[in-house]
Write a structure and sequence with these properties.
GMP Synthetase, Chain A, domain 3; seven-stranded mixed sheet; alpha/beta; Rossmann fold; binds adenosine-5'-monophosphate-propyl ester; eight-stranded mixed sheet
């Protein structure tokens, strides 16, 4: 932990309170405050009864002997049970009469000659067949239960097919966000020891083709772990081909049966690994297992989004993030919902695209990120107002604190004052939504994720684990296990303990600072470690620093977050050059290019500042707090007596003013 979390001050005051819209509760799963309180009490006092009941709404090949086996920090949920996530998302839905219902509603980005986008409506029955065929194809390529399969695809139905096919045969998928570069692929493939990559020729983004296959080819120059690359023909651009290694998706499925046995997975068998940034350079492979993750994402999707049979549900996240895993693919499909997948940018051809889509598909539940909302605000409400958004009944937000101004705009301009907003707090590690309003019953305030979901024992504590009083800023911890909690960091049990279970004794530390107000509502104040949240995505400063230092002109680099109007946080990089190297605009551009190439455009610094040396403590730790203040243009305050070189700060300030 950094020095910054010893005392967290909060100056935010927000007194506006919005009751759930009249009539919403009547048709909602959770329809009264009393029902919520009774269920919440049971979920905390008798978690085994509560979660056992929830699990009974799903399909199991064999039931559990014990709901929970818990010894800090290792949880086992639904011990001894056998199930299959893909079976629950497909066969179990078909068995309930949803075979002809649309499971995935896909819209492509390019507009065709008639001005309309490409659409695909894939029913649960078709999806089951597609998954079965592809799963059989994977088996034929030698993929077995327990293997890790890397998926690097655009936001297209085949991404869900690939994930579900892995789940069906018991292989763990490791999805890499399509915006990540080849270096990110190398690191993740190597850590996961993955021998198969599933990709496409390209993906569509803002009128351009993202060269996914070329990125994979570049990555595979640095590792020989991968024996097969499966390539889906999607954008039709030319790609290189390595004989013996590369195989077309169409050849993988050719001649395969649509029937593929859903492997009876032990509840604690892994379902997937997903890499996320931590405060050291190496991304962490967060491991989620089968039964608990399934129950957690199922129940939160049902209650938080209040999913009903006729809903058209759209979560705008990419499948490369946990939100895409839990709330584009698994949670909604396990509820038999229609889930929308859009491959493309929110501003193509302009910022009205999302609202045109809401109108076109009569989207009823819409879940997006504050960064997107701020971009829409900036583009202007005219782009929204020309569309009929009357189908919307519930709005959601995720990824970072939503500033009250954006919350109000979301409510008024998108929700026309009639849609409740659920601001959902959770993490890659938690697998499911943890703190959230329930739309029919929780009065909301702009900027707070409000109250814990069922079974979630969240608290604000100091470093010793002592619970703090109302409005005292502290560390956000979870004191009881929950079904979809991470089961570890892939191949690194020590880091799991150190990262989450060591800062505060006996409880899960989220890495976030927060406070609870007088009503018990949680206000997230941001991360307390060296992790920056850019557009709702966590980026480790160390990873960006090591990219910068890989350039031959750079001796040292320090990266910090700074306030950014659109992205929540932007990235400022302080760079010390090697002797004899001179600062220049070209060098700045080159350094930005290095970061884009090694991590992806998301991590590209917004500012690069050259400096002769970095402010450090006597023990050699970079004083990020000072750099943050410089980057955000604040006066430097606080204790500087441990600075190694007092001249450094003055020099940084001079540059700032110059
Ligand atoms: O700091 C919190 C912030 O995003 C972090 C989790 O990032 P990631 O694992 O990438 O998952 C993002 C999507 C779940 C958290 O530790 N965060 C997420 N949602 C919120 C939030 N901060 C405030 N309010 C939220 N609703």
């Amino acid at each position: 932990m950094s020095e910054s979390n010893t005392g967290i001050e909060s100056s935010m005051q927000e007194n506006r309170l919005f009751s759930p819209p009249a009539g919403f509760a009547e048709k909602a799963w959770i329809s009264s405050r009393e029902q919520y309180e009774t269920m919440y009490r049971q979920s905390i006092d008798e978690p085994e009864v509560f979660w056992g009941n929830a699990a009974n709404e799903l399909h199991w090949f064999e039931k559990w002997t014990t709901v929970l086996d818990w010894k800090v920090p290792d949880a086992r949920w639904f011990v001894g049970a056998k199930t299959n996530m893909a079976y629950n998302c497909l066969d179990h839905q078909i068995a309930q009469g949803r075979g002809n219902k649309t499971a995935i509603l896909y819209e492509g980005e390019p507009l065709q000659s008639d001005g309309q986008p490409q659409l695909r409506h894939i029913t649960f029955a078709q999806l089951r067949d597609d998954v079965g065929r592809f799963a059989n194809g994977l088996k034929k390529l030698g993929v077995k239960k327990g293997d890790r399969v890397t998926i690097y695809l655009p936001m297209i139905p085949e991404a869900a097919v690939a994930m579900l096919a892995c789940a069906r045969i018991g292989a763990s998928h490791s999805v890499i966000f399509g915006g990540f570069s080849s270096q990110a692929i190398v690191d993740r493939v190597a850590d996961a020891k993955s021998t198969i990559i599933i990709t496409a020729d390209g993906g569509n983004r803002r009128g351009q083709v993202v060269p996914l296959k070329a990125n994979v080819d570049e990555a595979l120059k640095s590792t020989d772990l991968v024996r097969k690359v499966i390539i889906l023909k999607h954008t039709g651009n030319a790609v290189g081909w390595t004989e013996g290694r590369d195989v077309a998706w169409s050849d993988v499925i050719a001649g395969q049966s649509t029937d593929c046995l859903a492997e009876p997975m032990d509840s604690e068998d892994p379902l997937f690994v997903l890499y996320t940034s931590g405060s050291t350079g190496k991304p962490k492979g967060i491991v989620h297992t089968t039964g608990g993750y399934m129950v957690g994402t199922y129940l939160t999707s049902k209650y938080v989004f209040d999913l009903h049979e006729n809903d058209v549900y759209w979560c705008t996240a990419d499948v490369g993030w946990i939100t895409g895993h839990s709330y584009v693919v698994y949670g909604p499909l396990a509820n038999g919902a229609t889930t929308v997948m859009y491959e493309g940018a929110p501003n193509h051809p302009d910022f009205s695209r999302f609202w045109a889509m809401v109108e076109r598909h009569k989207v009823s539940v819409f879940y997006t990120a504050p960064t997107a909302i701020r971009a829409f605000m900036k583009a202007g409400r005219e782009l929204v107002d020309k569309h009929d958004l009357s189908s919307l009944r519930l709005l959601g937000s995720v990824g970072e604190p939503i500033n009250p101004e954006a919350w109000m705009w979301y409510r008024e301009v998108i929700g026309h004052d009639k849609c409740p907003i659920v601001d959902t707090w959770w993490q890659t590690e938690t697998g499911m939504i943890m703190i959230t309003p329930l739309a029919g019953v929780t009065p909301t305030k702009p900027g707070t994720a409000t109250l814990p979901f069922f079974g979630v024992d969240a608290a604000i504590v100091d470093r010793d684990g002592t619970e703090l009083g109302p409005n005292q800023g502290g560390l956000l911890v979870i004191r009881k296990p929950w079904p979809s909690m991470l089961r570890g960091i892939f191949n690194d049990p020590d880091r799991y303990v150190k990262q989450y279970w060591s800062d505060v004794p006996g409880v899960y530390f989220t890495g976030d600072g927060a406070r609870r107000d007088g009503d018990g509502y949680f206000w997230i104040m941001g991360r307390v470690d060296d992790v920056i949240n850019v557009s709702g995505h966590r980026l480790g400063t160390a990873e960006i620093e090591s990219a910068l230092v890989s350039h031959d002109s750079v001796a040292e680099a320090a990266v910090v977050g700074m306030p950014h109007e659109m992205k929540g946080q932007g990235i400022a990089a302080f760079v010390v050059l090697k002797t004899g190297k001179l600062p220049s605009e070209e060098l700045k551009k080159a350094l930005m290019g290095v970061v884009t190439k090694s991590i992806g455009a998301l991590a590209r610094p917004d500012q690069i500042r050259f400096t002769e040396t970095l402010p450090k403590t006597r023990s050699g730790k970079i004083m990020r707090r000072l750099l943050k203040e410089v980057a955000s243009g604040n006066e430097i305050k606080g204790d500087t007596t441990t600075l190694e070189d007092f001249s450094v700060l003055a020099k940084l300030k001079e540059k700032d003013e110059g």
